[in-house]
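Session log. Operator J.P. requested a structure for one protein chain; no other inputs attached. Running the standard single-chain path with C-alpha cell output.
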Amino acid sequence: MNTFLQDVRYGARLLAKHPGFTAVAVITLALGIGANTGIFSVVHAVLLRPLPFPEADRLVYLNEESQQLPGMSVSYPDFLDWQSQTQVFERMGAVQPAGFTLTGGAEPEMMFGRSVSEGFFPTLRVQMSLGRGFLPDEDRPSGNRVAVLSYRLWQRRFGGERSIIGRVLTLSDQQYTVVGILPANFDYRGTDADVYVPLGLQADQMKDRGNHPGIYVVGRLQAGVSLEQARAEMSAISKRLEQQYPDSNRGVGVHVQWLRDSIVGNVRPALLMLLGAVGLVLLIACVNIANLLLARATVREKEIGIRRALGAGRMRLWRQLLTESVLTALVGGGFGVLLACWATDSLVKLSPDSLPRMQEIGISPTVLAFTVGLSILTGIFFGLVPALHASSAPVMQSLREGGRSSLGSGRHWLRSVLVVSEVALSLVLLIAAGLLIRSFVRLSNVDPGFDYHNLLTARIVLPRTRYQDENRRRAFYEQALRKLQTLPGVIAAGSITPLPLSGEGWQNDYRVADRPKPAPGEYPNTDIHYVSPSYLATMRIPLLRGRNFTENDRDPKHPVVLVNQTFVRRWWPNEDPIGKRIQFGGSNPAESRNPLAAVVGVVGDVKQYGFDSQPKTEVYLSNLERPRNYTVLVVRTSTSRPLQLDAAVRKAIQEVDKDQPLFNVQTMQQVVNASFGERRVSVFLLAMFAALALALAAVGIYGVMSYSVTQRTHEIGVRMALGARGADVLRMVMWQAFRLALIGLGIGLVLALTATRAISSLLFGIRATDPVTYAGLALILALVAALASYVPGRRATRVDPVVALRYE
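Structure written below.
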C-alpha cells in the first residue's frame, strides 16, 4: 500500500512538473471520456435503466394488429375477453388518451389525461401518494364519476392541499370526485398526463367489437412466465375470438412486446451508433496520448535506466508508469464528467422531446461508476505500450551520457503505426457522419405536400356534454373559423383531424363500389381526415382534379370525399376518379348500411407520418358533414413569427365559447422540427464527434512529424550541407506524413465499407457505399494530414547545417 501511495505521489509531482504535457493530455482525455460519459448517460436512461415500477421486467405492452393495419388499437370487448381468458398474466390494464377541460378557476384549462381500466394502476403496482385508485364498481357505465390527479397538477393547481380528496371538479362539463393523487415520480410511457378517469364509464359507446377506439393494454406477467409464452397464449385467444366473431375479428391478431421496448421504439440503433462513435473518439484520443508518452519516454530513458540500475524490476517500472497513466486518465475523467453534465443538460433543454425518457437523463451513480472504470481502462490502454518500450531499453545504453535514444527507430515505427490507426479510425467516423448529414439534408428537402411556413396550429376538444349535437359542433367551428379569418395578420384558417406529422393517424376500413366485396377481415384500410372546406387553401395542398369541399357539403346522407393521388393510383390508375364511390366500414352488418360516398376531388399526397414515410391512401371528409369533438386549427399568417398571434387566436375562440381553451399551441415549423427530433440529435452529435476525431487526427500527425523532425535534425543537417534545398526537405517531411496518411486512408476505407452497413437503416435517399461521400471525406482528411505536416516541414527547412552537424 505504501509503495502504491508513493507511486501516486510521484506521478502527481511529475504531472505538476510538466504542466504543458499534463494540460494537453487532460484536455484530450476530458473530451474523449466526457463524450463517452454523456452518451452512456443517455443510453443508460433510455435503454438500460428499468422503468420506474416494481418488477418492471414483467410488464408487457399489447395491441391488436392485422395485415391492413399492423399497429392498431384494441377493441374494448376484446380487452374484456383477454382479461377473462388469460392464464399467464397476473393483471391487465387498458389505457386510452383523453383530453379534459378543467373549469371553475380563473380561466378554463385544457389538460392531457387518460381513461384507464380499474386494473391499470394495480398492474403497474402504483402506490398513491394520497387516496386510492379506481374500484371495479367505478369502471362501468353506471359507476360514479371519479378521478385520479397527477402529483404535478395537485401541487400546481391546488397547492398540495390534502383536502383535495373528496373534492368535486368540473372536467369537460361533468362532475368528478377526486379519489387519489399519483406519486411524484409516476411516468407512464414518458407522456405528461394530469387526469385519469375510469375507462368503463364509456363502455356503452364501445360495444362494437370492430371499433378500435385508441385503447392499448399493459399487462404484468405471472412470475416465471416468458414473453414467448405470453405471445403463444394471446395468439390462441385471438384465434378463439376470430372463430367466435368472424365478422369483426377475422385476421386480427395480438402484438406483444416488453413495455420498455414499446417506449424506446426505434431509437436503439441510433443510440448504439452514437455509443460506437464516441468509443472511436476515445480510441483516437488514447492513440494521441500514447504518442505523447512515447515521445516523452525519450526524455525519461536516463531516469528509467537509473531506476533499473538501482534494482527496480520491469514489473515495478510498469506499475509506476501505468500509475502515472491511470492518474492522468482519472484527472481527465473528472473534467470529462463536468463536460458530460453540461452537455446532457444542454441536450435535454434544447431537445426535451427528441428521445423517450429524456427527463431521466443525468449523471447517476451508475454513470459515475462507468466513468471511473472507463478512465482506469483508458489509462492502462494508452499507457501500456509506452511502459513496455520504456522499460525495455538496455541499461548501459540508457545511462550513456549524450547517447542517442536506444529505441529511437523502434519507437518511431510504433508511432507511425499509431498515426495510421488514428487516420483510419477518423475516416470511419467522418464517413459515417458524412452519410448521415447528406441523408438528413436530402430528407429536409423532401416536399411534405404542403407549405409549413408561417402556420400556427392549436388543438381543441369540445366537451361532449355541451356539444353532443352535431349542429352545435358545426356551428362552433364555423363561427370560430370566421373569427380567425378576420384577425389582423391572418391570411387563412382551417381545421383538420388529425394534423400531418403530429404522430397521429386515424384509419377506417372501406370498400370500393362496383368492385367485388372483400371477405371479412380482408377489407382495405385507409387514413382518414376530417377537414374544413378552407383547409386545403390554408395548408396550400394542391387540388389536382375535381373540386374542393363547399359550405353545402354537410349532408351525412349524401357524403362526398376527396382522395389523394396514391388512392387513385391504387384503384383507378387509368380512369377518371371523379364520381367514383366508396363505402366506409368493414363486414359488420351495421356498417354495410353506411351510405356510399362520392369522390369529388383529388389532392396531392401529404407526408402524414414523417418526411421519410411512404405515401399511403388518404381520404378527406368534410368536418361540416361529420363534425368531431376533437380537431386541430391551422392558421396561416402574414408574419414569419406565427406565435405572435397566440393571444389573439385564444381570444377569438373564447369569444365563441368563454369556457373553451386551446392547448398545444405551436407553429407548424415546430411540428416539423419535432418530427426530425431524434434524427437531428443523432446527426448533430455524430458530426460533432467526427469533427473532434478530425482535430485529434491532425494533432496526432503534427505530433509525430514534429518528433520525427527533432529526431532527424542531424540527418537533415547533413542533407542540407550536401546541397539539399529547403523545398527538398519540406517535400521529404510532408511525403513521410502523407505516406502514413495514405496507408491510414486505405485501411479506413475498407473499415468504413463494413462499418457503415450498421447505419444503412438510418439513411434516406443515399446508399451506405456512396462513392462521393467516401472520396470527398478521404480527400478532406488527406488535406488535413498535409496541413498538419506542413508546420514541422517548414521548421525542418530552417535547420542550420552547422548547428545540426554538432547535434548530440
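Operator note: The two ends are 42 Å apart (CA to CA).
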